[in-house]
Protein 1
Amino acid sequence: MTTVHQSSQQGKRPLRADSERTVRTILEAAERVFAANPAATMEQVAQAAGVARTTVHRRFATREALVEELTGWAARRFAEAVESAHTENTPPLVALYQVTANVLRVKTDWWFAMSRTSDGAHPEAARVHAEVRDDCERLFLRAREAGVLRPDADLDWTRRVYYALIHEAAAEGASGGGDAEALATRVVDTLLRGCGSPAAPVIA
């Protein structure tokens, strides 16, 4: 996943530390404001960030530019969350739990922005999601080879179910329904064991 993070920095002049802090403050405020009201104005974002409206406009010419940068910011955090789980060289079950917890933290903290990263309209976000999908498929292949998943598990179906569980857990987390570790445990447990009783009949 390192290529995603590196490529996102190409062509961008590094910000000074104080400017970077200001941009982060504005983006965090924008996430809170837009999550509560997607139609919120730049002035409302400035108020939430505790800065002048001119400060926001100096860094983001339009509301659309702010939302675009917010989407890219969330995509980069998403890429970093997957990278930091070291899914290629960690035992599959450990990697599955760790990447789930890491991703849920990002999806919970950046719920509005992450909701915009999966539609393919933002080039950087689309690139991140494609690479994350590749990482997920490799992890599930390793999990199947290690016996964490059944030998006959359909990996594409498993990945889609996993994504759906992640989405539901992130929605619960964003509404205050639990921390990332607890939600990750629920996701992984549901994915690997389901909700049925061990004694339940199996349909042939």
Protein 2
Amino acid sequence: MTRGAECIGSEETILQAAQKMTELGVGSLPICGTDNRLKGVVTDRDIVVEVLGAGKDPSSMKAGELAQGEVVTIGADDSADEILHTMAEHKVRRLPVIDGHDLVGMVAQADVARALSDATVGDLLEALSTD
């Protein structure tokens, strides 16, 4: 897990999210509401496909507009097996880590690859790559 994940506010623009990703050297940011609760996750791919590719203006579109449905998260004390299961089941490569209602970090596919056996990582990659 990468601790201390920084949020982009749901009222901040997609352009601000892209700039923050660039500054932090990350490919995703949790989206937090004005109540400081997790609302979603925006990825660099979301910005390209759902904003730029769709002809929308990243300087006027709000990050919260990309928050869809219930956020898939894991708990701070969840096991590696639970992380793998959650990633595979929801076909996500990044998971916000929460402790209660507080965002405490992010787990990415790369974190899993560094921590687990090649066979286990291969199973995850296969699950994420199939429809």
Protein 3
Amino acid sequence: MIDLIWLGLFLAGVTTAMFTGHMQQVTVSILGGAEHGVELSLALIGVIALWNGLMGIAEKAGLIDTLARVLRPVARWLYPSVPENHPAMGAILANMSANLLGIGNAATPLGLRAMRELQTLNADKETASDAMCTLLAVNTASITLIPTTVIAVRMQYGSTHPTSVVGTTIIATALGTVAAIVLDRGFRAWDKRRRRG
């Protein structure tokens, strides 16, 4: 569905440009944007490789396991339907730890694995379970302590203080996570009342 939305937006833009005489600007923008995207991607490789290396060292040093132990009570509260020793809980904890440390490229496969494991606990395979909805909400908002990608982009564009966003990122992602949890619990309670009534 999202592919159709993007296609519709693209076609609407090109059609509008054709009828308003701005096709040259659209062509220049498309080609310039593609070139700029490639340049930015290449420039980010080094910084992201550095952060991934540091996070790999942290993982081997036991930081991820330590974070998982600290986060276990929070995960038990967020996912009461998931048995403590189920593989889904391990994947959820690993996903939460990776998001907390700002390594989204590692968090994504962990989140997908957690969803697959949660599906094994799901009685209705056609509908997302409460735990799956909570994982999606928390994973999307996710408190982040070290916004590695944002720091890398700021470095690429010559920021004199690329890490100055850390404090505001922590506040924004914390507020986002609280809002996600409150809405998740609120919709869950509303759904239960609706089913009863």
Protein 4
Amino acid sequence: MARFFLGPEAWDGNAVLTGDEAKHAAQVMRVRKGERIVVFDGRGRSAPAEILEVSRSEIRLALGEIVRRPPPSPRIRLAQAVPKGKTMDLIVQKAVELGATAIQPLITRNTVVQIDGDDAARKSGKWQRVALEACKQCGQDVLPEVAEVKDFDRWIGDSGGGLKVIASLFPGARPLRDILRNAGNVEEITLLVGPEGDFTGAEGEAALAAGFQPASLGSIVLRAETAAFFAISATRYEFS
């Protein structure tokens, strides 16, 4: 059945699809009264729903049995330097499908794309919509937050706790497998992945000072998006 996002505020009382979700359901999917769909709230709840009434701007629903699913554990936050072109769209999509629970886009010294001001909010909003569409398609009920784009130097000093790993080409990096297997019981993991030209030496030093462990992803030099997919997949597999 088709899946639609029903905001958390709409689960108590009248369940009504509005905005882009209602428009997509009515005008693209052409749903009809009496049909059944699945809705989810982005926080782990989902439910089958019967369509009671359809208009261009609203779709009234009768919710069935609500299922609650916990978020994947441990929580994986991908901190990703924004690559050029539309590659970040792909990274967000696949990160959601692979089980990332948060995404932090970053601007680094070697980032080709420069994003500032209103463009930062616009880009993050676009990537949040990509994340939502990925959730709808892959059956993920927890919607990852795509944070607003931040400058690496501003973010690194407040990069949170838990296990922190930087995908690194620097000498002395340990295999990612070894870091994960020695991590013990962790609740949150931050995976930091650089741009096409990797992090600068100064950025690498700042990451180490902030508690990131340098991890090797193997002997083959990976593209930025491939490194992100590899790191998330290996982490999710190790803790599955």
